[in-house]
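User: Okay, second chain of the day. Same drill as before: sequence in, structure tokens out.
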Amino acid sequence: MNDQDTTQVMPRAEPPPEPQQERPRRLLRSRSDRMLGGVAGGLGDYFSVDPVIFRIGFGVTLFFGGLGALLYLAMLIFVPSVPSDGTQTSSAPRTFGRVLLLIFVAIAGLIGLAIMGVGAAWAAATGHGVLVAIIVIAIGLALVVAAFNGGARWLILPALALAIPLGTVAAADIEFEGGIGKTTHVPQTVHAIPADGYEFGIGDQRIDLRDLDWNENSVIKVEADQGIGRMLIMVPENVCVDGDIDSRYGIVEIAGEESSVSLASGYSATPRLELDATLDAGKIEVVNDDDVAVDDHFGGNDGIARDEMRDRMEAACAPEPEEEGHAG
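Assistant: Same drill. Structure tokens below.
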């Protein structure tokens, strides 16, 4: 009888490997798939779609106020690029909801920047550009200080949002002195005309000079200045119009005919209006018609025959024939 123990010891089974946790994905700008800053490539990698879709989207939004360009610039500043070794550093996961939140914050920021830009342009046009310039200088100094400590790159966006409109308005010499909307002036006497002229900001300014006490020898001088919009000057049919009439970024129409930006024709005919009118952007119209209502007239001489107005203006400005001498 064999007393040997024949029981075989089974090898211990190794525990199953623990499932590897997937490394959280981050929204990063691509280094390998980029045309500018790798923003579209990074979005394509994150959502596993062709980055061309995002490039087309950015391009299309350029036609809607440049929102795509501003959003691209924001992501270029705030979204880091893939490290040079190709690895992704560990961080909190960027879920789809967080990406949407990021986009929402970016859009809200762009709206705020747009408001800042409009405010800067308005301040510059109304003579308060110095205050905006001081703010831009302060932001620039903050960027210089932050350069030694790192960060604060986000200050670049508000600085640009303020500086670009400020510089544009200053370079174009646009001014918005006066009101906004619609205003009508109907002076009854020459003394009722402001000595420093009529000033208006943005909108529709109408100056009706037909009720003045015109006589055959009258020479009346009127100054008018406006920022943006339409300036309408109305004179009697027998009055000659001369002077300096200038729409810097727009159209000048005198008696139904587009004219040069500056008349200064040296007419001597009377009665005569010496008009010094300046409009930064828009249209200046001079209408010589006794019947049209000032409140009804708006937009391209509606209901007025341009040929008749031109003939009347030529007749009003024509020099008087010299009297023939008589032989003694």
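The longest helix spans residues 96-125.

User: Thanks, on to the next one.
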